[in-house]
Amino acid sequence: MGDPKGFMKIPRQESGNRPLNKRLYDYSEVEQSLNEEARKDQASRCMDCGIPFCQWGCPVMNNMPEWQDAIYRGDWKKAVDLLHITNNFPEFTGRVCPAPCEIACVLALHEEPVTIRENEAAVAEYGFEKGYIYPRPPKKRTGKKVAVIGSGPAGLACADLLNKAGHLVTLFEKDELAGGLLRYGIPDFKLAKSVIDRRLNILLKEGLEIRTSTNVGTDISAEELLKSYDAVCLALGAMKPRDLHVEGRELKGIHFAMEYLTQQNRIVAGNAINSKDLITAKNKHVLVIGGGDTGSDCVGTANRQQAKSVTQIEIMPEPPLARSLDNPWPYWSKIKKTTSSHEEGCKRIWNISTKRFTGNNGYVNKAETEEVSWIMAEDGKMKMNALPGKKKAIDADLVLLSLGFVHPVHEGLLNDLEMEYTERGNIVVNKKHQTRNARIFATGDSIMGASLIVNAIASGRNTALSIMEYLEK
Q1: Which CATH number fits the domain 6-130, given the four candidates 2.40.50.140, 2.60.120.470, 1.10.1060.10, 2.70.130.10?
Q2: Residues 83-110: what's their mean pLDDT?
């Protein structure tokens, strides 16, 4: 390393967020950036630790020590090249990845890990600015045709590698623009959609064919798909939302989180929404049910829509502020996470279960809840118990269900292709990501359930390698 003692001289410095009184009135990205010299200083904190646990913690196996050193030495082109060896889209993960690499960083033992995620975003931006990231179409084509269904991170990563290998790749997307949940699920204040478009323009210039507004299974039949392509990759995501089956669920004003976020992303993009279909938090008491990142995104969006109040509830216990003894480094830290959206205004409640919704004239206005506790049962599983006398009504003019996703949508294409499903409803694949039909592969959330963007990219890359191997036979 350039400075093996850098971590002893320089404290961790994060970029920080834009001021609250400014960012709450727009949908521009919240996170700020450090200048070049400060970023070099942060990269210098990467120590010569011997075993790079950061790389062990990263699903795509980024070579952190090498490109941190390149940043420190000012060799940004080398840093860009090193990052792209393992990660197709560092500009995405540099913005919205929860950074398992930092959690596994040796310096995390003292809660001062290297700012790996921010450094990654900086490398990507510097690469685009200086022209180090540019179209590199394959020198020759194999003539083999591959269809990739779904343009989220897994589909994009898979299609990108296959195209670079010289295959003729068509990427299908049911929505009007490519990007999947990168575009329609993540708010612009976390990921500006111009960042997606910038990368898509490169992929198009490299020869990737992208067909949007095409619902495979309806616009193109499963039979036609198999006749037209040598291999097919299913990257449909896990888009079947988990519902809450309680009394009053039919009341108006109760929506799935993704329905709400997708609509707002389209509004930010300039799309007109019919007033009768508009979901808005303006002047409403908003209740977000579910404590994950999607719930946090709902909180940030509701605050920008000028909600009267925002409450987020979670059925599980409140996580600790620091690692517990049974959750040691370098494993994923199960600690309380406070996002920029939470900082903007939100009441958070744990150990609370929703029992029913009540309303007036067909519209929800309250959620009746009760406090619960969790104990370890004899079978080793956690068991939930309601606490007597701990019921509470929460004002809720808008309820957003952020309970995660259960599995990919089976109806339509997957059933037409006669896919086999696991007990959880995901597509069954072998170690090569092949389904029961050897020509059909599956990747990303459709085989592992809803997960991180970096996991989806890793899955897409691995699936692409398996497809290449299959096409060479």
Answers
A1: 1.10.1060.10
A2: 97
